[in-house]
Amino acid sequence: MTTRWTVLCEQADLIEGAGIAAMLDGQQLALFYVPESEQKVFAISNWDPIGKANVLSRGLLANLKDQWSVASPLYKQHYELLSGQCLEEEGVQIPTWSVKLETGKVLVACE
Ligand code: FES
């Protein structure tokens, strides 16, 4: 299956070391720009399934055991930006998207 890349926003919309919220097909995403990471930009669901609110774009970034994660502003659980895995609750994982930067645009893979 070929990956379809959708332009989500401009690279200039991103904030270094922090998150912004974006909308893809009616679903809220949280985009994180981490220039010092190999991946540079990450896309996860903005929905915190434990806090039950769209807040993850406002969470704080953390580098734990060499993995970038975000701490939910509500109950402070960490979600890994690459896998969506919650570090405190083994059974909780949130959706993630492949994302890349190209000629000043942020592209997200969708199926
Ligand atoms: S733009 Fe419709 S599935 Fe991605």
If you had to describe this structure to a student in words, what would you say it looks like?
- It is built from no helices and 12 strands.
- The chain has 111 residues and is an all-beta fold.
- It has a single domain (20-99), classed as 3-layer Sandwich (Rieske Iron-sulfur Protein), CATH 2.102.10.10.
- Strand 8 and strand 9 (78-80) form a beta hairpin.
- The protein is globular.
- The N and C termini lie close together (9 Å).
- The relative contact order is 0.25.
- The model has no long low-confidence stretch (mean pLDDT 95).
- Bound molecules: FE2/S2 (inorganic) cluster.
- FE2/S2 (inorganic) cluster (FES) binds next to loops.
Provide a concise account of the structure shown.
It comes from Marinomonas posidonica (strain CECT 7376 / NCIMB 14433 / IVIA-Po-181). With 111 residues, the chain is an all-beta fold. It contains no helices and twelve strands.
Keyphrases for this structure?
3-stranded antiparallel beta sheet; 111 residues; Rieske Iron-sulfur Protein; 50% strand; mainly beta; binds FE2/S2 (inorganic) cluster; single chain
Instruction: Give the rounded overall mean pLDDT.
Output: 95
H/E order of the elements?
A: EEEEEEEEEEEE
The number of domains: 1
The low-confidence parts are none
Q: What portion of residues is helical?
A: under 10%
What top-tier CATH class fits best? Mainly Beta
Q: Report the count of strand segments.
A: 12
User: Which structural class do you get from the secondary structure elements?
Assistant: mainly beta
Distance between the termini: 9 Å
CATH architecture: 3-layer Sandwich
Portion of residues in beta strands equals over 45%
As laid out across the biggest beta sheet, the strand order is 2-3-4-10
Shape: globular
Bound molecules: FE2/S2 (inorganic) cluster
Q: CATH homologous superfamily - what is it?
A: Rieske [2Fe-2S] iron-sulphur domain
According to CATH, the fold-level topology is Rieske Iron-sulfur Protein
Q: Give the helix tally.
A: 0
- The radius of gyration computed from the alpha-carbon positions, rounded to a whole number of angstroms, is 13 Å
The major sheet is characterized as: 4 strands, antiparallel
